[in-house]
Request: fold
Amino acid sequence: MTGPMTEHFTGNFTQQEPIPEEAIEAAVAVLRHGRLHRYNLAGGETGEVALLEEEFAQLLGAKYCLAVASGGYALATALRALGVGHGDRVLTNAFTLAPVPGAIASVAAEPVFVGVTESLTIDLEDLEAKVGQARVLMLSHMRGHLCDMDRLMEICEAAGVAVIEDCAHTMGASWNGVPSGRHGVIGCYSCQTYKHVNSGEGGLLITDDAEVAARAVMLSGSYMLYSRHKAAPAPEVFERVKYVTPNISGRMDNLRAAILRPQLRALDTQVARWNERYRVLETGLRGTPGLTVVERPAAEVFVGSSIQVLLLDWSAAAVEAVLARCAARGVELKWFGVPEPVAFTSRYDSWRYAPAQSLPESDRILAGIIDMRVPLTFSLEDCALIARIIRAEVSAVWQSDL
Ligand SMILES: *Cc1c(COP(=O)(O)O)cnc(C)c1O
Reply:
């Protein structure tokens, strides 16, 4: 018999669910006919990519959609489509992942970092203070936490700042009933294996702005085949941009689109399953001494594909002890406060291609952020067990006064 102190978790934190059978069949059909390139169509055929774009635009209530090679490519394309280039400054979150400042650097622009609050959202006071420094905000809904989007849009609209939303962790989320990605001028999504739909790699970009959409389509490498798109603007819009928009190839192919279409149809079901797991973890962790649960606002519909808690003002040695003790019992936690970038985790001061910036209040919060993935291969019982393990180990280190 093993008591609660010796419980051990044996699941895998990076193991996603298999691709659904329906998606496998659609993929095999594409392989059988061999027309993988999005513009390689039989007579009268629309193609999986154009259908995916049409369906995603409809799902989000957007006029236009473009499917591309990755989420990071979608972000860079969004910047280019808004004319951001060499030496321009772009506001963005200090708390995000490397593809976001990377997209800004890829167009030779400079990130201006905006701080993070204890809610793990962008600090709107810091944004107000810095909003005059740029004409674009690349807003990362990092780890699925949505800020007060109504207030954010007020600040940006008043300052004439265009908002690009990085929805890599918010596909399926909304604020006050408006889907994430529909507040700003452009919304960007990732279809990479660790996000909410899985085609290995892939990205989606949505907008209601016809010129932005036409430029994005040209940028992605449409040559002069843009009439083969469905969720794209009318040919006359392309006439205005086609000679002055470079081709920076980053198209999606029909194989990935075929895998994604059935997954999009199942998104709501998957979101509900993620949130069931998230709530079990949250309930199990709430009230742990020294640990702060990040409370979710009522206006937010989120997707609990990961969970964050704060060990605020803990010493580095104590946080490291928690991580080591949890790891010894099979629970893999990530720490955003780690001084050296590890795996997916890095901090704004590790992106040294950007001008050095100092955000002491954010440093305090980043130093306390503990992050955990919640793959759908975990059962509710797994989640309850993980919460028990974290609770026990955090309590043990808290009491040891490290
Ligand atoms: C994954 C991710 C991206 C980019 O997605 P890729 O498809 O991997 O290029 C952008 N922003 C955040 C916050 C991400 O986690």
In short: DSSP finds 13 helices and 14 strands in the chain. The mean pLDDT is 96.
